[in-house]
Amino acid sequence: MIYAICIFVSLIVLAVLSCNLLVAFSARGKVYRDINKAPENEYGLLLGTLPCRTNGEINPRMTNRVKAMAGLYKAGKVRKVIVSGGTNVRGQNEVEAMHRCLEENGVDGSDIIDDKKGVRTYESLRNVVSAGISQITIVSQFGHCQRAVFIAKSLNVSSVAFAAQSVRNSKSWIMAMREVLAKVKVFKDICRQGKRGES
After folding, report:
1. Tell me, what's the pLDDT at 174?
2. CA quadruple 95, 91, 188, 141: dihedral sign
3. Which of 15, 1, 48, 45 is nearest to 180 (CA)?
4. H-run or E-run covering 159
């Protein structure tokens, strides 16, 4: 019995590790940290996150993503910014918060496109496809960028990503574990989409 449990757990760990390695390998060379080396694209995609923490403080992950996208915009690396997100269980509207912060950081409001149906990364990129956009620059933190690039490839969208500064705190390990599991779940999303295409 113990032997069988060990085999089962080992297979799960192997599956999780394999999924994460495949996503990371697929995004290799496509996630930039140096704004001068990032290629130009007409559109940038800013992926949503919680605007505020539970204590009411501004979420630094959102702030860092906004600053990264504003930097790309000012450097001429993107000319239009799609802000994609949803409204969380606390009633926080990610898109409105990021839109406002982008304008505060020097992005012209007329160059910002709101996507309030991007409740998940996969949906954000499907909405990009629906808009007829085939090339894009994605902005988020590094691990999320890898996953987004992988999803974009599965949807036949040519993408690169720019990694916003990470946030280090006592809960960083929770975010890291969530990203590990999200890289597994993305395969389920892709398989489900494939079945839709066949029907």
Report:
1. 81
2. positive
3. 15
4. strand 158-163
- Using CA atoms in the order 180, 186, 191, 197, what is the torsion angle rounded to 10 degrees? -170
Torsion angle of the four alpha carbons 10, 16, 20, 23, in this order, in degrees rounded to the nearest 10: 120
- CATH level 3 topology of 15-198: Rossmann fold (3.40.50)
Integer Cα distance of 67 and 97 in angstroms: 13
Computed on alpha carbons and rounded to an integer, the radius of gyration of the chain in Å comes to 17
Residues in CB range of 93: below 8 A, 6 or more apart: 51, 85, 87, 116
d(CA 189, CA 57): 33
Q: Say how far apart CA 124 and CA 109 lie, in whole Å.
A: 20
Of the candidates 143, 118, 103, which has an alpha carbon nearest to the alpha carbon of residue 45? Answer: 118
Domain borders along the chain are: 15-198
Pairing of strands 78-84, 112-115: parallel
pLDDT digits (tens, 9 = 90+) for 114-154: 999 998 999 999 999 999 999 999 999 999 999 999 999 99
Supply the DSSP string of 86-138, one letter for each residue: -B-TT--BHHHHHHHHHHHTT--GGGEEEETT--SHHHHHHHHHHTT--EEEE
* pTM (predicted TM-score): 0.89
Residue 126: CB atoms within 10 Å: 18
The sign of the torsion formed by the CA atoms of 39, 44, 46, 47 equals negative
Answer whether 38's CB lies under 8 Å from 4's CB: no
The total number of residues shown for the chain amounts to 199
